[in-house]
Backbone:
């Protein structure tokens, strides 16, 4: 039983380091059904009383392995039920998500979809963190993948025990918690067997069309056999060293930042003189930080983009600009460099002029539509648990309480001073502050449709509904389904 004591000791130590021990912390456990996530779930369940934890299990059926994926979902639900833990199991289509988001990589799309799902579960459960079963093997593989893509220090760092939420950018203070980074995959499987618990094997881990699987099944074993039997441990040490070095240089950048950059209205403006005085590494990190402040994350930023940004920053010529992923522009000015959103290249909203009255339906099951400027608004009263066929599962569709919103609404643009009571909050918040928190580019804000009723703003379309307009928790509750699309 040595492996049982070792794994649980390391999980308990990680809980204490993260500040989640004996604080009544609510944690969502991402469970795929495999040995890593099952070992984590079983360990946390065995430790929950001692450490005062409240656990909620989350499983996303990626819907691309047929009956096997269905069986995984049933397995996780049954394990959670046996442990007496609440569980959320949802099926989503990564191919459709990839198409909607214009993402070329299936792996990236599935990753974003998975994290977006867990963020929603965490919000509903009131959880401070989501924990996942990443191991030392995953950390080593991540470092190798980043090396192959030409990564810098951030890529070499791999993944940390606790980190900011990776996607989406508006997840607030939610953290991603990885307490098994000192354990191996073999050890998590052994742990499950030692405590008499089962787990599922995912055939997706052996599909060679996924780069990570080729690294895991081919490259890592070759490196271990032909070059270094301890290659995994060496890569983990490299990741820890990179993390320590990044902590130091990030601290140096923190000190220099007020003199180097200014943030306002979704833009970051750099003093070219102050940037030139920085060490080249700090220049690079400053540009990367600026990009994250404008977009919310660095997912699409590659080493080639960083090289181009550095070249532009150091260029003596003025008036040049560089297009970056996510509709971001790095622009040279006389004394400044400006990172900003390009309104025309990436704005998902058409121009919005005037106010547009909308009559809301009150008859159950009858589909109704209305034109509002360049927008087509589809509406139907039904139940919260049954989305109409036309109501796609994306940010342009929502459901509201028909009794709360009434029979009439107005679609209009944002006005300074507008306030909303965001879902999950008791007080009201300025839309300007909401847009800032969501990192909505300043030029886009006046194009975002606002759905207002006699009670107040019910929906900032594509972003937030009002708490007072939400549908009750029962899936049979009556709901007004609304979808905005460009006419």
Residues:
């Amino acid at each position: 039983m040595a492996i049982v004591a070792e794994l649980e000791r390391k999980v308990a130590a990680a809980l204490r380091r993260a500040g989640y021990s004996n604080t009544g912390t609510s944690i969502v456990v991402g469970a795929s059904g495999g040995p890593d996530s099952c070992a984590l779930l079983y360990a946390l369940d065995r430790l929950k009383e001692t450490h005062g934890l409240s656990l909620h299990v989350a499983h996303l059926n990626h819907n691309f392995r047929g009956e096997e994926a269905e069986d995984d979902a049933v397995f996780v639900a049954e394990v959670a039920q046996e442990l007496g833990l609440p569980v959320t199991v949802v099926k989503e289509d990564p191919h459709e998500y990839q198409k909607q988001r214009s993402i070329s990589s299936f792996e990236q799309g599935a990753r974003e979809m998975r994290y977006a799902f867990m963020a929603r579960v965490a919000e509903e459960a009131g959880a401070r963190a989501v924990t996942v079963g990443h191991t030392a093997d995953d950390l080593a593989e991540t470092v190798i993948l980043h090396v192959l893509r030409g990564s810098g220090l951030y890529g070499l760092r791999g993944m940390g025990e606790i980190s900011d939420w990776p996607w989406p950018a508006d997840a607030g203070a939610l953290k991603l918690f990885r307490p098994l980074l000192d354990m191996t995959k073999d050890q998590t499987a052994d742990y499950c067997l030692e405590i008499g618990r089962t787990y599922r094997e995912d055939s997706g881990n052996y599909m060679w069309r996924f780069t990570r699987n080729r690294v895991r099944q081919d490259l890592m074993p070759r490196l271990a056999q032909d070059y270094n039997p301890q290659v995994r441990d060496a890569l983990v040490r490299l990741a820890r060293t990179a993390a320590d070095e990044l902590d130091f240089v990030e601290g140096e950048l923190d000190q220099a930042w007020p003199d180097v950059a200014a943030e306002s209205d979704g833009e970051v403006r750099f003093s070219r003189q102050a940037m030139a005085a920085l060490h080249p590494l700090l220049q690079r990190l400053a540009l990367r930080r600026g990009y994250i402040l404008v977009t919310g994350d660095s997912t699409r930023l590659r080493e080639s983009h960083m090289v181009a940004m550095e070249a532009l920053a150091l260029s003596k010529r003025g008036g040049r600009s560089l297009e970056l992923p996510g509709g971001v522009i790095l622009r040279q000015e006389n004394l400044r460099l400006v990172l900003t959103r390009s309104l025309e290249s990436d704005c998902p909203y058409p121009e919005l002029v005037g106010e547009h009255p909308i009559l809301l339906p009150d008859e159950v099951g009858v589909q109704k539509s209305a034109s509002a400027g360049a927008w087509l608004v589809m509406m139907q009263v039904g139940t919260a648990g049954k989305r109409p066929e036309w109501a796609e599962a994306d940010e342009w569709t929502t459901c509201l309480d028909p009794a709360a919103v009434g029979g009439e609404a107005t679609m209009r643009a944002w006005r300074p001073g507008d306030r909303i009571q965001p879902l999950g909050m008791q007080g009201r918040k300025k839309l300007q502050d909401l847009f800032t928190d969501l990192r909505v580019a300043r030029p886009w804000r006046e194009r975002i449709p606002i759905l207002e009723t006699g009670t107040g703003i019910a929906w900032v379309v594509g972003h937030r509904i009002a708490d007072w307009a939400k549908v009750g928790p029962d899936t049979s509750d009556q709901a007004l389904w609304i979808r905005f699309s460009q006419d």
